[in-house]
């Protein structure tokens, strides 16, 4: 195998249990890391600004909540789980003044290090534990005795022990139950951005919406179109998750499999592949990062407009009505945060 994968037996939980961890941010990833680390016997404090919307939740869930600066001052390991676009100013205002030799700064995604927005001093460890899944499922899997795979990387090894500490952290959130893969900040950042833009989020959302539009514009019932293009996608992807595309093809009918084999490449054709390569190029050159930082600094005008357009898409109304009748869809992501 070309990568190194680490499991529970390879990680020493004692290394992170011996440290105090400040989790900066209590959103999707922050709540999952904080709750699971605490369940793993780690001393955790939360860093959130006064007036943060997340403060009541973290306090209700039994955490000491300090400002990011206070939490960073107390902790030995500072895990930055605030939005990527907020991290640069949090770092300069609250974290950097509280760094000292022997401390470690951790990230859940490499964006700010990869694009040079944060440059920690040489005397601290800089590492990453990046779960390959949404935070609410990171927590749910941990609570169910399972785990979400993580990418683990060290950018700066001041202590000589940064990788072992990062592996210990990954174990504390269940990552080494599923497998922690050793990588670099660059590989994690570029593949993560590519995956979410081209395949997992951008690609999948556009595929689902477009399929729904084609069926409803042709006069088919929105409910039928919803089940066909969105609901059933999970069931098909579950089979891929369990046994790859081969297992999915084993389970579907021959008719579906012939349609898959003969038509799939007409949908995802060479034009789509060229566009994917272009998107990867924008990530590698830093063009996407510059665009996103500028969009955020301008108050996110396009982000807000596109978010509203997505929310107003007819598939959302149809889905809301149908999901209201599905008693088995009973684990809302709001149950943990
Ligand atoms: N979402 C995911 O599943 C994944 C995320 N990641 C990475 O994890 C990191 C966190 O992302 P995510 O969990 O989605 O973030 P969320 O948007 O879900 O949560 C962000 C949290 O940070 C808080 N916050 C906002 N501003 C500040 C600030 N100035 N100081 C301290 N805390 C602040 C927010 O509080 P408030 O409620 O007040 O806004 C909120 O609690 C990112 O680096 C992301 O790329 C990595 C893998 C998957
Ligand atoms: C797929 C989106 C993601 O990269 C993730 C959940 O892993 C993110 O940034 O939220
Ligand atoms: Mg990701
Ligand atoms: Mg991501």
TrEMBL record:
SUPFAM superfamilies: 6-phosphogluconate dehydrogenase C-terminal domain-like, NAD(P)-binding Rossmann-fold domains. Its EC number is 1.1.1.86. Pfam families: KARI_C, KARI_N. Mg(2+) 1 binds at residues 192, 196. Its cofactor is Mg(2+). Mg(2+) 2 binds at residues 192, 228, 232. Residues 184-329 form the KARI C-terminal knotted domain. Gene3D superfamilies: 6.10.240.10, NAD(P)-binding Rossmann-like Domain. Pathway: Amino-acid biosynthesis; L-valine biosynthesis; L-valine from pyruvate: step 2/4; Amino-acid biosynthesis; L-isoleucine biosynthesis; L-isoleucine from 2-oxobutanoate: step 2/4. Substrate binds at residue 253. It catalyses: (2R)-2,3-dihydroxy-3-methylbutanoate + NADP(+) = (2S)-2-acetolactate + NADPH + H(+); (2R,3R)-2,3-dihydroxy-3-methylpentanoate + NADP(+) = (S)-2-ethyl-2-hydroxy-3-oxobutanoate + NADPH + H(+). NADP(+) binds at residues 26-29, 52, 54, 135. Binds 2 magnesium ions per subunit. Keywords: Amino-acid biosynthesis, Branched-chain amino acid biosynthesis, Isomerase, Magnesium, Metal-binding, NADP, Oxidoreductase. One of its GO terms (molecular function) is NADP binding. Involved in the biosynthesis of branched-chain amino acids (BCAA). Catalyzes an alkyl-migration followed by a ketol-acid reduction of (S)-2-acetolactate (S2AL) to yield (R)-2,3-dihydroxy-isovalerate. In the isomerase reaction, S2AL is rearranged via a Mg-dependent methyl migration to produce 3-hydroxy-3-methyl-2-ketobutyrate (HMKB). In the reductase reaction, this 2-ketoacid undergoes a metal-dependent reduction by NADPH to yield (R)-2,3-dihydroxy-isovalerate. Belongs to the ketol-acid reductoisomerase family. This is Ketol-acid reductoisomerase (NADP(+)). It comes from Micromonospora jinlongensis.
């Amino acid at each position: 195998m070309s990568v190194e994968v680490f499991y529970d037996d390879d990680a020493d939980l004692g290394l992170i249990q011996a440290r105090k961890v400040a989790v900066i941010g209590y959103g999707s990833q922050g709540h999952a890391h904080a709750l699971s680390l605490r369940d793993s016997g780690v001393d955790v404090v939360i860093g959130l600004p006064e007036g943060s919307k997340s403060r009541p939740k973290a306090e209700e869930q039994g955490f000491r909540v300090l400002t990011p600066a206070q939490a960073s001052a107390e902790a030995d390991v500072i895990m930055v789980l605030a939005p990527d676009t907020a991290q640069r100013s949090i770092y300069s205002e609250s974290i950097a003044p509280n760094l000292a030799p022997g401390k470690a700064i951790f990230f859940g995604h490499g964006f700010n290090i990869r694009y040079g927005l944060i440059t920690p001093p040489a005397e601290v460890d800089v590492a990453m534990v990046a779960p390959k899944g949404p935070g609410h499922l990171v927590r749910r899997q941990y609570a169910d005795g399972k785990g979400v795979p993580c990418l683990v990387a060290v950018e700066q090894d001041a202590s000589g022990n940064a990788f072992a500490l990062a592996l210990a952290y990954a174990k504390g959130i269940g990552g080494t139950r599923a497998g922690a893969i050793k990588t670099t900040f660059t590989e994690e950042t570029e593949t993560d951005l590519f995956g979410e833009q081209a395949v997992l989020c951008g690609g999948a959302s556009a595929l689902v919406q477009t399929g729904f539009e084609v069926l409803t514009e042709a006069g088919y019932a929105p409910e039928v179109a919803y089940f066909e293009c969105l609901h059933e996608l999970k069931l098909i992807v579950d089979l891929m998750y369990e046994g790859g595309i081969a297992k999915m093809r084993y389970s579907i009918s021959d008719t579906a499999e012939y349609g898959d084999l003969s038509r799939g490449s007409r949908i995802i054709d060479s034009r789509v592949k060229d566009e994917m390569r272009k998107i990867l190029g924008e990530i590698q050159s830093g063009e996407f990062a510059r665009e996103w930082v500028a969009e955020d600094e301008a108050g996110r005008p396009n982000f807000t407009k596109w978010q509203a357009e997505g929310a107003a898409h007819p598939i959302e109304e149809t889905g809301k009505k149908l999901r209201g009748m599905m008693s088995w869809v009973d684990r809302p992501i709001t149950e943990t945060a």
